[in-house]
Amino acid sequence: MWADIRTVMWKEWKELLEQRWVFWGMFSQAGTFGVFLAIHQGIAFVHSPVSLSYWVWLPSIMVMTVIADAFAGERERHTLESLLATRLSSSAIVLGKLGTAVGYALAITATAVLVGVLVVNIQFYAGRPILVPPLFGLLGAGLSLLMAILVGSAGVLISMRATTVRQAQLTIAMIFVPLTIIPASILLELPGPLQTLLLGQPVHVPMTEILAIVGTIIGILIIADIVLLSIALRRFHRAEVTLES
Amino acid sequence: MKITVTGEVSSQKPQSVIRLEDLTVDYHEWRAIDHLTLDIPAGIIFGLLGPNSAGKTTTIRVLLGLVRPTSGRAWVLDMDTQTHSDAIRQQCGVLLEPGLYERLSAEDNLRFYCRVWHLAASEIPERIHASLAHIGLWERRKERVSTWSRGMKQRLAIARLLIHRPSLIILDEPTTGLDPIAAAALHQDLFQLMQQSQATIILTTHNLSEAEKLCSLVGIIRAGKLLALGPPGELRERMGGMRFEISGRHFPPPLLQQWRQLPGVLSLQVQENLLTLALRPGTATAPFLTQLVQSGAEIDDAQWKTGNLEEVFLSVIEER
User: Do A7 and B86 touch (CB under 8 A)?
Assistant: First the structure.
């Protein structure tokens, strides 16, 4: 099973890398995004909960761009049926494609963060390197991963039914773009101290409270990931996917 | 409908590699396969012939577990396609569409499929070299497949499906896009493969001369129904594949029109000085000659000619 997942990922990465302009273009955009954020947020970039929200938002967007192509793209390029006719299990195909999209999104996010940290250090270096606090980094990486899996699993469900990549991209965007705007609106409606905390101002909020909020979000995301991924795996029936062709 | 193979396919009683029993597949309102019953013995090249939308590709999809039957059952290598489709796909090499990753090189396409079939890492370079060298494309292995001609892609697609040396090979329109030389090379390969590995080959095709050259057993299908099944030679005899050709002049049109209505006449064609009659087996020819002479026609020559599979196909399709 792992060997098959790796095989699918190998093929997916090869195809991504062959689209050099797209691939490196995304990385350069992510780098620019990192520069912009670091200049805009200053030193808060390395520890503000707002920058944490960007760590969650960026991989979600990046996963959307890749996962739409996963099945709809193969269908469009007339390779899907040949892939389904191989010995590869349905789970290996789904997980291999999802793994590639998530890996790609996390790589771009990591690039953006690294560039941002570099810019902060260039701006504010005072004898000691300014680094992301370990707990903050861990939470950021965890949230990025969980969000990428969530969006990726939903993308798999959409892509396996879509007849074209464009249709898959539009459907994914219709679902997830509002989901990224709504949290921003909610943020503005939050009580003052919490809003201040999230905007990175130095107020005293007990660490236990912060961990409780983040822990709840992570818990919800883990459950949502498991549910959505299970649905994606269960609903990937070769017979139905073939008939969509 | 059940049609039994009466022709000799092999000297021993063959074991069925594919068995369809009253198989029906409906896509919403449209019936793609209509109560199809079929046995295909092991170690042969079987051709499934039919016009567009006849149900050929759907039949293949059912065999691979890519489409669920509405009713009836299908077995491949004694495994039920609904419960053992994973195991069935393990044994098969399939060409459903070129199915090549055009952004990748030919070498990477083959490498991917080598990995899919779990070939040993040490074996992969040699297998890729042998496959590409065999189809004459080794020198172009690093090129993106998207830059290739359709014929080159088709050759690569066939190399890809054979790379793990499957015991059951399923080809959907394999020579589409191939020039006559490449098509002949493919025919040779398929024959060799069948002889060397005892593989069973199932192919669908519109190309009737290809089916006649390659297949020891053919099935003619239309609207999901099996209309005829048998070795090409036997079908020619059984389905009225013999034609009676009369060369001469002044064939009277009213008489020809009258003949067209006769139950023994399957078809009648006049081209310049040649009158061709496809007759049902056992139909006497002397009355036709007598009537022609009496009506003032001049006859130079008259003889029986063996029909080809194309004529059988057309007569079967038109008849039903």
Answer: no
Q: Which residues of B touch A69 (CB under 8 A)?
A: none
DSSP character for B147?
G
pLDDT (tens digit per residue) in A80-135 = 999 999 999 999 999 999 999 999 999 988 888 888 898 889 888 888 888 888 88
Work out whether strand B217-222 and strand B200-205 pair parallel, antiparallel, or are unpaired.
unpaired
* Domain of residue B289, CATH code: 3.30.70.100
Comparing alpha-carbon positions, the chain A residue that sits nearest to B102 is A77
pLDDT, averaged in runs of 10, over chain B (320 residues): 38 71 89 92 90 88 91 92 90 86 94 94 93 89 90 87 89 81 79 77 83 87 88 73 82 91 85 84 85 90 76 65
Q: Which long-range contacts (CB under 8 A, 24 or more apart) does B231-235 make?
A: B231/B5, B231/B7, B231/B8, B231/B9, B232/B309, B232/B312, B233/B7, B234/B6, B234/B7, B235/B309, B235/B312
| Claim to verify: residue B245 and residue B122 sit in the same structural domain | no
- Residues B260 and B122 both lie in one domain: no
**B8 falls within a domain:** no
CA distance to partner chain B, nearest, from residue A85 (Å)? 6
pLDDT single digits (tens) A31-83? 788 888 888 888 888 877 777 777 888 888 889 888 998 899 999 998 999 99
- Closest Cα in chain B, distance from residue A239 (Å): 4
Total structural domains within chain B: 2
Domain end position, chosen among B180, B204, B230: B230
The answer to whether residue B247 sits within a structural domain is: yes
On whether the CB atoms of residues B137 and B145 are closer than 8 A, the answer is: no
> Is the Cβ pair B99, A7 closer than 8 Å?
no
Q: Would you say residue B2 lies in a domain?
A: no
Nearest to A15 among B95, B99, B101 (CB): B101
- Chains A, B: CB contacts within 8 A come to 74
pLDDT at A204: 59
